[in-house]
Amino acid sequence: xxxxxxxxxxxxxxxxxxxxxxxxxxxxxxxxxxxxxxxxxxxxxxxxxxxxxxxxxxxxxxxxxxxxxxxxxxxxxxxxxxxxxxxxxxxxxxxxxxxxxxxxxxxxxxxxxxxxxxxxxxxxxxxxxxxxxxxxxxxxxxxxxxxxxxxxxxxxxxxxxxxxxxxxxxxxxxxxxxxxxxxxxxxxxxxxxxxxxxxxxxxxxxxxxxxxxxxxxxxxxxxxxxxxxxxxxxxxxxxxxxxxxxxxxxxxxxxxxxxxxxxxxxxxxxxxxxxxxxxxxxxxxxxxxxxxxxxxxxxxxxxxxxxxxxxxxxxxxxxxxxxxxxxxxxxxxxxxxxxxxxxxxxxxxxxxxxxxxxxxxxxxxxxxxxxxxxx
Amino acid sequence: xxxxxxxxxxxxxxxxxxxxxxxxxxxxxxxxxxxxxxxxxxxxxxxxxxxxxxxxxxxxxxxxxxxxxxxxxxxxxxxxxxxxxxxxxxxxxxxxxxxxxxxxxxxxxxxxxxxxxxxxxxxxxxxxxxxxxxxxxxxxxx
Lengths: 375, 142
Description:
- The structure holds two protein chains of two kinds.
- By secondary structure, chain A is an alpha/beta fold.
- Helix content of chain A is about 50%, strand content about 10%.
- Chain A has helices at about 25, 40-45, 45-55, 75-85, 100-115, 185-205, 210-235, 235-255, 260-275, 275-295, 295-305, 310-325, 340-350, 365-375; strands spanning about 15, 35, 60-65, 90-95, 125, 135-140, 150-155, 160-165, 175.
- The longest helix of chain A is centred in the middle third of the chain and has 23 residues, at about 210-235.
- In chain B, α1 (about 5-25) crosses α6.
- Chain B has six helices and five strands.
- Chain B has a single domain (about 5-130), classed as 2-Layer Sandwich (Nonspecific Lipid-transfer Protein, Chain A), CATH 3.30.1050.10.
- A five-stranded mixed sheet of chain B has the order 3-2-1-4-5.
- Helices cover about 40% and strands about 20% of the residues of chain B.
- The interface of A and B includes residues 7 and 363 of A.
C-alpha cells in the first residue's frame, strides 16, 4: 500500500563516470576561483592534484587547499577552515575526500555564509538562505555525504557528535569518478562499502521509507552485491565505480528515509569506544536485520532478492559473510568494546536519533540483547 | 482562524499541559534530569513557552514553566505554528516528517530533544484529558 504522504528531495545534481573529474571545469563553467577542502593524505596521494590540475589548465584559479581535515572532523577544524576560506576570494568550494572532508566543507560553507559560530548552527532547518556553491568529490564509497543534507562534526570538548541538518547543506554538485577511489586500502573499501549497504538496508526498512527511497535502496543493494568483493580484492575500475554509484544511491535514500537501530548502536560504539563507523555497522547489521525481520519479514526478503539470494534468512547470512570476506572484524569484542560497556552502549543507542525510524520499537533492553549477541 | 484565538488561550491549553507535565510523577523527573532549557516559539498566535529544567522549580513541580518572553539562554529552541504544536501534543504528528517539511524547526542539539521523546509519551493521553477538564472539549482532535 502506498503511503498517504510522500516527501522526496535530492537537491544535488550528480554526474558520474570514469575520468569525469578531469572535466570539472566544464561542470563549473562561469566559476573562476575555487577553494579546495581535503585532507593531508589525499594531497600526498596526488588525488587532490587530479582535481586541481585540470581546473587550473582550464583557467580556473585554485585559490587555496585547506588540507587539515582529520578522519573525524571537529568544530575547531571547521572554524579554522572557515577562517582560511574567509581570507580568500572564491566563488565555489570543492570538497575532495570521504565523509569527514565533505561534512567539514558543508560546515565551513555554513559558517562562512551565516557569519555565525558552528555551535550556534546546530539543529534542524536552522538555515533560511541558500549557501555558497559546494561541489563534492567522494574518495570513499560509503557515507553518501555527497548527496545528503546532513553533516556530523565532533565537539572535541564534550566528545559529542553534533548534527546539522538543512536542505541548504546538500552539495550543489556531486562528481562520482572511480579514479578517486583507486588508492582506497582494501579494509577501508570494505568498511565504507558495509556502511553503504547499511544505509540502503536501513533506509528500506525505515518507518520513513517511501516508493522513491525504496527504488534507490534496492538498486544500491543490487549494485553492492555485484561489486563489493571485486572492489575490495581486485579494486578494478568497474567495481569501484559500481560501489561509488551504490553509495550515492543509498545516500539519497537515507537522506529522506533516515536509518535505524544499527546506526543507533554504531553511533554509540563510535562515541564511547571509537569504533570506526563502517566497522561497527558491518558487525551490527546482521543482528539488526534479525531483530527487524520479526516485523518486516517481507521487506527483508525483498532486500535479499535484490542482493541475489532467495530470502531474508539467506540475506542475513550473506551480509555476515560479506563483512568477513572483506577482512573486517565480526565481533564487538574484537574492536575494543568491553563486555561491561555494552549496557552504556545500549543506553546511548536507545536515545540516538536513528532509532526513532527503526521499523521495530527498540528500547535499551532490546538493544542490549543485540549487542550481547554481537559481542 | 487557528485552534487558539489568542496567546492567552494557548497558554491555558498548552501551558496548562506543560504545568501538568511538571507535576507528573513519570514525565516530570525525566525532564528534570535533562537539565535543559527548552523554548517553544509559536506563531498564529504569537506566543512563547519555556520549560526550564535547569533552575530550581517551584514546590510540587519538577521543572519551571514560563509564559512569554524571558532572558533565559535556551539550550534548544523549537519553532512552529501553534496548530502544529496542538496536533503534536495529541501524538498525531510524525515528528520526522514535520521537521523535514519545515513545519517545525529545532535550533540546538537535536539529540537532546530526541532523548526526551520517549519520556513525553504520557502527555499524548494527558492533553485530551486536561482539555476536557478545563471545558475545552471543542479542541480535542478525533
